[in-house]
Amino acid sequence: MYKIMTLNKKNLNEFRKLNENNDHFNLLNMDFFKMYDNGSFTNKVFLRRRVKLLSYNFKYIGYIWCDANYSYRNVYTINAMNISNSINIELIDPYKYIVNRLKKNSTFYYTCQNNGFNFNILKNIGFETVDGTLILNLNLDHNIPIAIKEDINFDILKIGKDEKKRCLIQNEIFKNNTRVPLSLDDIYFDEMQSYYLKKGAIFIKKRNTYIGYGQIILEENVPIIVNFGILKEYRGKGYSKCLLTYLLKIVICNGFNNVKIKVNNSNYIALNLYKQMGFEIENERYKWKIKT
């Protein structure tokens, strides 16, 4: 028999045990106790209220941890969800039970990395995909020929001078109805982060006109190409390949032997370019939603 209960001081240690395997269902599940153990008394009270524990035959087997989106009514984010894989019952049933007890007339969003079984479970309990990101990896143990065009050259972003230029170019490249435009503050904030690589922020120019931008960041000492794109009117002319190979040369010159890149799952043109360059899909991350 299943039972749902709110996290409290009495069952906190049981939850701590469950949280030890918090990434079993999803590597992107947040670690509750990284926030909880460093929180104030008041914060701990609020955090406990956001977690629901699931028991089966009086044994704690799983949990779900959600946060409200205060900008939109009845919209929530699932920070983590997991059921112990040691229980001797059909795995889909406890996930279905815990999701069916979420607040009614609400929408819940959950970002999940594919591990071979979690996507099937989410589909079967009523979630649907919103959008996805593919993480691709390229081994750089072979020569990367630079794609050259006579009228193309590259500039490194000059901190304190080129932020407005980057902001305008990125907003134009990635413009759509659902995206919130970047502000100059966003650019300045990006430059202050530990992952920011000064020599990895690159503009591509056609003669004297800036036509695109690409950036290399470092996450856990792994180079990742982000914010990569060409202005719409210059696409389909080989400029993306020019910029990409230039960025790859920067990665190689900095002593790295592999690089990653992130791409939206629906961006088939970019995905084809990356695959042509030898990138292979390493993992998939999708945002899912369910309406209760």
Question: Can you summarize this structure?
Answer:
The chain has 292 residues and is an alpha+beta fold. The chain contains nine helices and twelve strands.
General description of the model:
- With 292 residues, the chain is of the alpha+beta class.
- The chain folds into two domains: 2-126, 3-Layer(aba) Sandwich (Aminopeptidase); 136-284, 3-Layer(aba) Sandwich (Aminopeptidase), CATH 3.40.630.30.
- Helix content is 28%, strand content 36%.
- It has nine helices and twelve strands.
- It has helices at residues 12-19, 32-36, 41-49, 92-100, 118-124, 163-173, 184-192, 239-253, 268-276; strands at 2-6, 51-56, 59-68, 75-83, 107-113, 128-139, 152-156, 196-206, 209-219, 222-230, 258-264, 280-291.
- It has a twelve-stranded mixed β-sheet, with helices on both faces.
- Strand 3 and strand 4 form a beta hairpin.
- The longest helix is centred in the last third of the chain and has 15 residues, at 239-253.
- It starts with a strand and ends with a strand.
- It comes from Clostridium fermenticellae.
- Keywords: Transferase.
- GO terms for molecular function: acyltransferase activity, transferring groups other than amino-acyl groups.
- Residues 152-292 form the N-acetyltransferase domain.
- This is GNAT family N-acetyltransferase.
